[in-house]
Write a structure and sequence with these properties.
Sigma_54_int; single chain; ET-Flavoprotein_bsu_CS; binds adenosine monophosphate; 249 residues; alpha/beta; ATP binding; nine-stranded mixed β-sheet; electron transport
Length: 249
């Protein structure tokens, strides 16, 4: 079984982003960039399936600029076998990414696409669903546990107020939620080894992909500032304030 893991380069989750002065988006210049955390979980899950003998090969793919190859190297340092960069300078929306990923799926013919449930930069939570629809494959989104057996994959999904277990026939798309696993750290020797693993670059323009944006960002603004809170000494004071100031009881 071959597993394809789409990974995205995003602003590191520890960085506090600032809105650009012209409200056109957020400033990303000079910020630390990393592998999207949910994609790290997806890579880890694919590696575990390979280590269990369920999968033979784990291929990572990213759509983006040349610099995005750093997240491919990170994924290979974790253990992925090889990587594909679909190079483009275009701003990408989930529909465009799903189109590009479908082209890679058609080339690579994986049995499973294991990806993040969402990219933490624009929080779209749409690419996996769109890709499954374009491929006509079943999808198991928000996976917190998976089990592959007899050409099927059982997925435990995180849903509102509980979990749902579904069984999908392969090939399928699954998207990883936070509780699926705890990703490993790449060791220094593996970081060195990853430098020699194959990384293929394909020009998006040569693949004949439709990456044209359909969304226009009207404006990006900071959330309203919250008023500073106060500390009360006891419950009686709280009840008093709820009665007299907030007037909610
Ligand atoms: P999103 O729908 O943008 O929240 O992203 C969901 C998932 O799609 C991510 O966790 C990645 O696995 C994948 N993805 C999104 N953008 C890209 C990209 N540019 N290249 C590769 N995979 C991507």
């Amino acid at each position: 079984m071959k597993i394809l893991v789409p990974v995205k380069r995003v602003v590191d989750y520890n960085v506090k982003v600032r809105v650009a002065a012209d409200n056109s988006g957020v400033e990303t210049q000079g910020l630390k960039m990393s592998l999207n955390p949910f994609d790290e979980i997806a890579v880890e899950e694919a590696l575990r399936l390979r280590e269990k003998g369920v999968a033979k090969e784990v291929v990572v793919v990213t759509i983006g600029q040349q610099v995005a190859q750093d997240v491919l190297r990170t994924s290979m340092a974790m253990g992925a076998d090889r990587a594909i960069l679909v190079r483009t300078d275009d701003a990408l929306e989930p529909r465009a990414v799903a189109n590009a990923l479908k082209a890679i799926v058609d080339r690579e013919q994986p049995n499973l696409v294991c990806m993040g449930k969402q990219a933490i930069d624009d929080d779209m939570n749409a690419t996996g669903q769109m890709l499954a629809a374009k491929l006509g494959w079943p999808q198991g989104t928000f996976a917190s546990n998976i089990n592959v057996a007899d050409g099927k994959i059982e997925v435990i999904r995180e849903i509102d107020g509980g979990v749902e277990t579904i069984s999908l026939s392969l090939p399928a798309v699954i998207t990883a939620d936070l509780r699926l696993n705890e990703p490993r750290y790449a060791s220094l020797p593996n970081i060195m080894k990853a430098r020699k693993k194959p990384l293929e670059t394909l020009e998006a323009s040569e693949l004949g992909l439709d990456l044209a944006p359909r969304l226009t960002t009207v404006s990006v603004v900071e959330p309203p500032e919250r008023k500073e809170g106060i500390k009360l000494n006891n419950a009686a004071e709280l009840v008093e304030k709820l009665k007299t100031e907030a007037k909610v009881i």
